[in-house]
Design goal:
238 residues; eight-stranded antiparallel beta barrel; Alpha-Beta Plaits; 36% helix; alpha+beta; 8 strands; 2 domains
Length: 238
């Protein structure tokens, strides 16, 4: 009986432990149909995406995907995603009839798994402005890149930078998405808002550690690309 009650006590912990998977979809409205698209996707999100599957919608404000919209679901577990099932004919019909008509053919979808031990902010501690840096890794250098991120986390913690790290999962090239959440807004990007990154990095990781930082970039990183996104509460699920 004692073991039974212990199992009940820890059941929520075990059931939630793996709820760290986020799905992100990107869509791109036609240039002259942006207003119509925003009205349609807001209505669709309110009607069909709630609870665990609610949508957080971001406007992509810079980079190659400028003009697109970044739609996130989760966090959830792989088991929950596997058992989600078909969203139904009514949902699909509404998307096709009322939303997709304003979209171009360009789109993408990816899965990412939150890495708590590499992050300096909780998974669901969100902000309105974010910077996403995607780093793809050269074959055979994943451990090296992860060690590099571990050293980066020490700097983020020291400077109170709120950064969430995700591993890219079955969504193109292997690597990580580093999401800087600007809790105080874009002023956090200004020179002088925080101490120089290199100074703090060398302070925490050793006097000559910056050379290793740069050599890791050269050997482990295949490509790196960044962009700014703005959260659109008016389009997202309530």
């Amino acid at each position: 009986m004692k073991n039974f009650f212990l199992a009940l006590l820890f059941a929520p912990f075990f059931s939630n432990a793996q709820q760290n998977v986020v799905n992100a979809n990107r869509v791109f409205p036609k240039v002259d149909k942006n207003a119509e698209f925003e009205k349609a996707i807001a209505a669709h999100a309110q009607k069909y995406h709630s609870g665990k599957w609610k949508w957080r919608i971001f406007e992509i404000t810079s980079g190659p995907d400028y003009g697109g919209y970044h739609i996130t679901e989760g966090p959830a577990s792989w088991e929950e995603i596997d058992g989600r099932g078909d969203l139904g004919a009514e949902h699909t019909a509404d998307w096709n009839k009322n939303v997709a008509i304003y979209l171009t053919d360009r789109q993408s979808s990816n899965y990412a798994v939150y890495q708590e031990e590499l992050s300096s902010v909780a998974l669901t501690d969100y902000s309105d402005w974010i910077n996403i840096t995607r780093i793809t890794v050269n074959p055979g250098h994943m451990t090296e890149l992860r060690d590099w991120l571990t050293k980066m986390k020490k700097v983020w913690d020291e400077t109170k930078s709120t950064v969430a790290v995700y591993s890219i999962s079955s969504s193109g090239s292997n690597g990580y998405s580093i999401v800087t959440r600007y809790k105080q807004g874009l002023k956090e990007r200004a020179t002088g808002f925080r101490p120089p990154f290199r100074d703090v990095y060398e302070k925490l990781n050793g006097r000559d550690s910056w050379q290793h930082y740069e050599s890791t970039l050269q050997s482990a990183v295949k490509e790196s690309q960044s962009e700014l996104l703005r959260f659109r509460a008016d389009l997202s699920s309530k």
